[in-house]
Automatic annotation (TrEMBL):
Residues 3-182 form the Prephenate dehydratase domain. The record marks T175 as: Essential for prephenate dehydratase activity. The keyword Lyase applies. Coiled coil: none annotated. Pathway: Amino-acid biosynthesis; L-phenylalanine biosynthesis; phenylpyruvate from prephenate: step 1/1. The gene is pheA. Its EC number is 4.2.1.51. This is Prephenate dehydratase. One of its GO terms (cellular component) is cytoplasm. It holds the Pfam family PDT. Gene3D superfamilies: 3.30.70.260, Periplasmic binding protein-like II. Keywords: Amino-acid biosynthesis, Aromatic amino acid biosynthesis, Lyase, Phenylalanine biosynthesis.
């Protein structure tokens, strides 16, 4: 049975997401301490794939995931899932809210309950740990008084109880997760796909606008753009782009080839079905048929059959 890594320990949102991402095949889920460790296990071949959090509707991207995706050998996303995120506040049964002095969780979880904490635990010391379930484990071990955790964590730490449930500053907050593996056969285009890339552009006038123009010219809808420092050179950035369409689509293929020409480097991070299955509306001049017709016309002109 293939092994799939996820940000553990058991009881994280990522575990929940990875179960959904692997629902259509038999898989054994193995917890990793961090996202980089999970992705290293994919690169080394210890596991087939990994489930990782990539962005949240409240807090934005998960930098550890973006960096770990691009800092080493290529990996590609083959599937995504979006799950709603609300939190439970877990503690030992003898601890009430007014006795909580330390609260631990994943930085993204802490960021999503800031308002609730200001209201309810204004004096508590806040500690960032590697995941929401790691926080629950630490509370179970007596290291902190309370954990901001996924509701499923309680199943794994039955010695704890929920001081509060359904905590979230923003209703309907959601997180997007990816199933990532080594490059290989791509998922088939479905007509409702997303493509992710990471591009490094030179530090000159207009290079970012030029890069985006390659997408807009071909009627490609950009759904996310994020910059992260390249790290070794201050003031230089790499851009993470998500856009509608599959690399097998003519307009996306052409845009990628243009980016490859224009950018210092382009890394393909996958084409995979969108979680919401929303079919992108394509302008008439950017449809597959329009590209095919234009290519046939050009071939005929070059062959001297048309003018
Ligand atoms: O720590 C977890 O449970 C994770 O899976 C990462 C995370 C944290 C907060 C919101 C969504 C995902």
């Amino acid at each position: 049975m293939p092994e799939i890594a996820y940000l553990g320990p058991p009881g994280t949102f990522t575990e929940q997401a990875t179960r959904l991402l692997t629902a259509d095949f038999d898989a054994e889920l193995v917890p990793s301490d961090t996202v980089p460790v999970a992705l290293a296990a994919v690169r080394s071949g210890d596991v087939l794939a990994a489930g990782v959090p990539v962005e949240n509707s409240v807090e934005g991207s998960v930098p550890a995931t973006l960096d770990a995706l691009t800092d080493d050998d290529p990996l590609v996303a083959v599937k995504e899932v979006v799950i709603p995120v609300q939190f439970d506040v877990l503690a030992h049964p003898d601890v009430d809210l007014d006795r909580v002095e330390t609260v631990a969780s994943h930085p993204h979880a802490l960021a999503q309950v800031r308002g609730w904490m200001t209201e309810n635990l204004p004096k508590a010391d806040v500690r960032a740990v590697s995941s929401t379930a790691a926080a629950a484990a630490a509370v179970a071990a007596g290291e902190f008084d309370a954990a901001i955790s996924a509701p499923v964590a309680l199943e794994h730490y039955p010695e704890l109880r929920a001081l509060e449930t359904g905590v979230a500053d923003v209703r309907d907050a959601a997180t997007r997760f990816l199933l990532v593996r080594k490059p290989g056969a791509l998922p088939e285009p479905t007509g409702a796909d997303r493509t992710s890339i990471c591009a490094v552009i030179s530090h000159e006038v207009g290079t970012l606008a030029d890069m985006l123009a390659e997408l807009s010219l071909r009627g490609i809808n950009l759904s996310r753009i994020e910059s992260r420092p390249v790290k070794h050179s201050f003031g230089h950035y790499r851009f993470y782009l998500d856009f509608d369409g599959h690399v097998a689509d003519a307009r996306v293929g052409e845009a990628m080839a243009a980016l490859r020409r224009r950018c210092d480097s382009v890394r393909f991070l996958g084409s995979y079905p969108k979680a919401d299955r929303a079919v992108a509306s394509v302008r008439p001049g950017s449809s597959e048929q329009a590209f095919r017709n234009a290519a046939e016309w050009l071939a005929a002109v070059r062959a001297g059959r048309l003018a």
